[in-house]
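Anyone else keep sequences and structure tokens together like this?

Example one:
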Amino acid sequence: MRLQIAHAQPPLVNPPPLAPDGLPWPPGYFDREPRVSLEESIKVHGIRPSRYWKGFPVYTAEDCQKPNYKSPYPSESETK
């Protein structure tokens, strides 16, 4: 039996200090390749994510209570 150990991608050596919107990058954004970019996340949900986990944006309960937060409903074809 042979075990394989997954290695995390190395973080960017010198990431830019600020995100395109002029604010600091969310924690975890550079831990691995983002599966959803910061720009796309803001476009879909209306606000910045609190952090990133395994390349996905994370929103807290407090984030979801903000008036600008949007949670899109899946289309009917996605739910079948």
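And example two:
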Amino acid sequence: MQTRLSSGLAPVFTRWSVVLPLWLAFFVVVGQPARAPAQATPFTYQGQLTDGGAAANGNYDLALGLFATATAGERIGSPQTVFNVPVSNGLFTVQVDFGVNAFPGADRFLEIGVRAAGGDNFVTLAPRQQISSTPYAIRTLSAGTADMLSSTCTACVQDSQIQSVAGSKVSGTIPVTSVPAGSGHYIQNATGQQPNADFNISGNGTVGGDLTVNGTLNAKLSGFIQDRTTPQDADFNITGNGTVGQTLHAKVIGVDAASPNGALEVSRNWDGHYGALTLSGDRPTIRFSGTSPQGNQQWILHESGNGPGNLEIYNGGTSGTFSVPALSLTPNGNMTLLSGNLTLSAGNLTLSSGNVGIGTTSAPVARLDAIGAGGGIGIRGASDARGVIGSLGAGGCPASGTNAGFGVGGCGSTTGDGVVGRTSVGPNTVTAAAVRAINDSGGDIFIGENRAVTLNVSPRKARIDGTGKGFFNGGTQTGGADYADSIRTTDNAADLEPGDVLAIDPQHKDMVRKSRQPNSRLVAGVYSTQPSVLGVGKHEIDDSLRGEVPVALLGVVPTKVTAENGPIRSGDLLVTSSLPGRAMKALPKMVDGVALYPTGAILGKALEPLRQGRGVIRVLVTLR
């Protein structure tokens, strides 16, 4: 075999040879990387592939790796695997990208593996091929000389390239025209207000124009309202509007009230929009702070941000920490009591519309939506006849005396369910369920009846007794397609998967393993994909089946097979193959013109064909 690895400098010729499974020989020729408009990390790999001395045609998989040495050593970067590479008349082209850091200038060697497309293992070609430089790469290696600017650089750095200069690096006189506008570090000559700038002048000054003060003016003068912390013995009467930017202290305030009662009295007739007092802003709130006679309790009436304008009442205890509202009223009229109890000592609580939620964290979704906290009971009903009844349709529930005395009753209409159980627990959870039936006396756990049956025929159609045994008058129908037993395995159960052909382990009692020999009479069955019935032996219903696998003994099972004994056709008998965990076509021995198959080694019959290679087909498992 001959390969050629070339670059822009000089070609390198190396002789390769390798023998592959199925007596294939592969030959690879590496072409020069194709030019691109700009330098990039991918390069084009071009080669020639022959099969048995002739140009190959079809699809192949290539595995390419980069190394720093001709033999051994660690792989550089990620391996590049290119699948289904089309080969026409022996020629193929692929794109390879080992990244920008893979070629720092040191020696690099390319290792290549080849297999037929979709095959099992790659065959590594030897020796590895050294990659030579290209003119572009040589230029890249010398580009490090531009990392530092020359001390003789003149006008090589422009204004647009300068981001900032530290103030400590500036010396000398700065012309006024060079001072940038908008800085907050000096007083500027401008007509607009200069934001975030303070000044403090100890000498005298003159203001030739108007002086505008937007904040506080402190002056040692009398005859006007002064900025001071002590009371000023002065009255004021202002007919216009005014703004108080800080705290306003007053003993009594009356708004449209000549003689206010209490600390604050607002008198205003209802105008259909605002009323006497309006609170606005982000989450407007009224706070109530009690003293010792009220237990120092803190309350707020608050328009919350928890919902689109919910009005909520919070209790902050004595510390004034408000976290969860006690009562919430939504704009659409839903009222939620989030903590505490609602007690009616007399009278009725009537809702003409809307829902009632108890223990819910969001708007209730039913007329009565009750959730028990911490695994508690959501709704408890106690009565001489029925605890809780839900009725759908106009028919109502059976009258007292007919099925009277049940804990929970559901009466559905022609389109509604009588009783629905729902939960969010995950699989294999034995502590909670959507519906749980309990019999404390050992009797039946479940009884199902159909009262629309013919006269004089028992309406009872399904029953589960106290031992867990099920009785079904009309038969049963389940998912899946096979019967399987759960059997321990000497293999690591995590390494087995559905479709594996399993055999009895002769070294261990009652255990199986992946089949290992062709035509084995130890064949036990197939690792079931979805058993219709799974026998668990002496296990209880909630026992763990760890270390065991479902072994399909009868039924239709997806099975791993190989064409080791030739193509498989539908109806062919199957036996174990030399490949672990796979079945193959059974070949009979002809005795006086009669085909004899190995007794005790037949796994079943193929329901689908396999023309070549390996695959998974449906098999009617019938051990014999």
